[in-house]
Amino acid sequence: MTWLLLLVLLRPLPALARAQTLAVVAFATAGEVTGSLVWGVYRYRLHNLPLFIPPAHGLVYVSGLALVSVVRTRWLVAAAAVGAISWGLAGLTVLPRLDVAGALGVPLLVVFLWRSRSRAVYAGVFLVVAALELYETSIGTWRWAVELPGLGIPDGNPPSGVASGYVFFDVEALLVAPWLVYAAGRLKPKLARRSSGAFRSSRRRIEPTGMISASGASSPSSPRTETVTIP
Q1: Which pLDDT tens digit goes with each residue over 76-95?
Q2: Burial category of 77 from C-beta neighbours within 10 Å (exposed 0-12, middle 13-18, buried 19 and up)
């Protein structure tokens, strides 16, 4: 169902936005396998990777793009920066769980919000991720470890810098997407030429076999006419 919803939402988008979203799904899924199943930084309720999670990353990215289209960049970036910095400071001072790992990720996000040409996308995705993390951890869909396994760095539930991970996914997707669009554009003419070649080959395989006259006689000198349908 989640995949179907994602495909429906992708249909009206430009090719580049669709490529970015699918790239985010690929990179984020690799991050899920590494962070949850291998490293154990967080765990889902059933200690697996639910099937709705990969396409949900695409929905998060599309939602971030939607925010960019309806909210002015200046306000969106300001809201994300203030929210991230406030959350990071709260995780070091007043929140029930000490969140050092999250606070370490906040500066990375702020740098991208300040310097990147795609700052609006990062800001929109951060706001969506923040709302999603707060809700899903509150109902126990997933839970973050008290400390980063093997490092002993205290971590929040959710950590304030969780969106910094999405920055990496988004950066990678923004870099790869133009090449995906280019590759798809190069592939389409090749497929068209291949189909055209198959059509010509099928026409060449039709040999003249004669034509049946009204009297029932066969005329070998006249070519037979056939209709060829290429699927």
Answers
A1: 999 999 999 999 999 999 99
A2: buried
